[in-house]
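User: Please run a holo structure prediction.
Assistant: Happy to. Please share the sequence and the ligand.
User: Here you go; the ligand is nicotinamide-adenine-dinucleotide.
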Amino acid sequence: MRILITGGAGFIGSALVRHLVRDVGADVLNVDKLTYAGNQASLKIIENAPNYRFLKADICDGQAMHEAFASFRPDRVMHLAAESHVDRSITGAADFVQTNVMGTFVLLEAARRYWSGLEGEAKADFRFLHVSTDEVYGSLGQDGLFHEQTPYDPSSPYSATKAASDHLAIAWQRTYGLPVVVSNCSNNYGPYHFPEKLIPLIILNALEGRQLPVYGNGANIRDWLYVEDHARALHVIASRGRLGEKYNVGGRNERRNIDVVQRVCAIMDRLSPKPNPHEALITYVTDRPGHDARYAIDATRLETELGWKALENFDSGIEKTVAWYLENRWWWQPLREKVYSGERLGTLGKD
Ligand code: NAD
């Protein structure tokens, strides 16, 4: 099985590459532009594996994508490359429109050209998984869950561009017959998460005795999934998901942001004690514009049709995550110093 992955140097992409190279034994070509969010250190464990290759390229570059398809001849594409940070999309949406919308269009066209030239079994077995987010559905009230049929209602420039890319992917299936399947996942957390995102930001700020910024009153609710559970789900959906369909991915782990922050503080009190409890560092800050109140995923279709289940519950996953950051300074210290001063606000989404 030859799998072309885009964005495999990012947070989820690197978990997926590690899973496919080590556990599944697939031949993987990782196509990544290495933006600020791409980090080859996340792939150190598998970088010398004979079934792993890396190509530094922009998915918006049609010629480069065409050549990647022609030379690697994938059986499958798993498309994760994106601009993914909501706060950055609010202050600079252009890169999001370019990569998330144009880049997905360019990649779909390169895939279509390649797939059109295939024959027989190779053509019948080819699959394109477009990886997306639950943020395309907008915000929930106190009750209810996002289903695959929930109408799209994105709030941020990030989620609007992801919604557009989902529509492109489904349209390429309906119009051209390209064998596309789409996944929409809730907030991920776990090791190798870029230090501008909520959970690593809170862990590292707490470690350094800095303020722990919480948007608004901290009551926004997210549905958290351990990143390795997501990687397994993506492999299952790409392998056996019905073409032209969408699959919601989530771990049934709804938490208020303030509860997540307090949980991290309690673990830090145990693993890295300070004279004052870490909770004293929590600082409420002005809410993000367009901040969705609640996300929660109904993953029944994925669970019943494809037999996937989240293996990690939030309490064990967050414990493992905090411990990982404390033990892997080599990974995050250079990012924290070079890219991120530690004073900027983190976000409270997947963002
Ligand atoms: P990330 O920001 O950590 O990684 C994105 C990767 O894409 C980086 O390696 C970056 O270098 C690469 N990239 C960006 N622009 C590119 C371009 N033009 N060409 C080639 N590579 C490019 O993102 P992530 O959190 O790992 O998310 C991966 C995917 O999953 C995204 O599509 C995102 O929308 C989706 N998603 C994320 C979450 C979450 O909680 N993080 C949840 C659901 C869905």
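The chain is about 45% helix and 15% strand.
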